[in-house]
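Researcher: I'm preparing a figure for a lab meeting and need a structural model of a single chain. I don't have an experimental structure, so a prediction will have to do for now. The sequence is pasted below. Please return the structure as tokens so I can convert it later.
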Amino acid sequence: ALLDAAAEQAGAVVAAVSKIDVHRTWQRVLAANRTALPGRTWVGVAAAPEVGSPRVDDLVEAVRAGLSESRALGGARPGPAAQTGSGEQRKRRAERMITRRGRVQQARVQLGGQARAMCAGLRAELHQGAATASARGIEAFRCEVRRRAEQVADEVDRVVTARLAEVAEGCSDGFGACAYPDPAPEPVIPPVRLPSLENRLTALLGAGFGVGAAVTLDRALSGVGPPAARAASLVVGLLLGLWVVHIRRALSARASLDRWIDEVSVALRIALEERVAARVLATEIE
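Model: Understood. Here is the structure written out token by token.
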């Protein structure tokens, strides 16, 4: 429709694939264009080639043939009386397509930005939750992450539907906001990888710390009766060792959750960008 509207006042139209001196697949492109838009003259040209000599002979011959045919039909440029109603309809249809495509592309940019912003907000929210999560609450936190990711995906779907409906209302051809042509891509939530090896090292270091604290305390309490001093040293060393192990495991678990949240955020953002692109593309080609 765009080509028809542009060529409405032309006596002859020749379509050219340019710079064939550097584009090695130009013949396949030319064949594809001829298949997509039959009934037109397609040629390959290289007017100022980087490699080889100029190749414009086919273009010159095609233009000469088109002008000769136009003169034989009564002139290169049709007058006002020769313009038909179908030409005006094609022109109006082309104008509507341009307007519609511009609105749809604007919506694509806006919706993509909204999806990324919502994923960034969710990521910050989850990082705050991970900072207060305990070792026993990791599984509950994982369930909460999945629930919030699904909520954000549903919210993006609602935003896309509402925005595309606004685009449809603003266009004169009355197209509708299309649903998914295929099942919507779902975000893949990666598994949490808890640092088991690091936990073993933490237990070993905690035990060493506890033994060291017990020996130090035993020396400090050497003036007290030996049984009482050793018992107190062992209890304090054991408590300090357990405390170090607990704190270190909690910090390690939170660091692992932070990395997992980053992975979830990236996976969710990719899935939502695919959703937005699929919806917008389906609306554009409807």
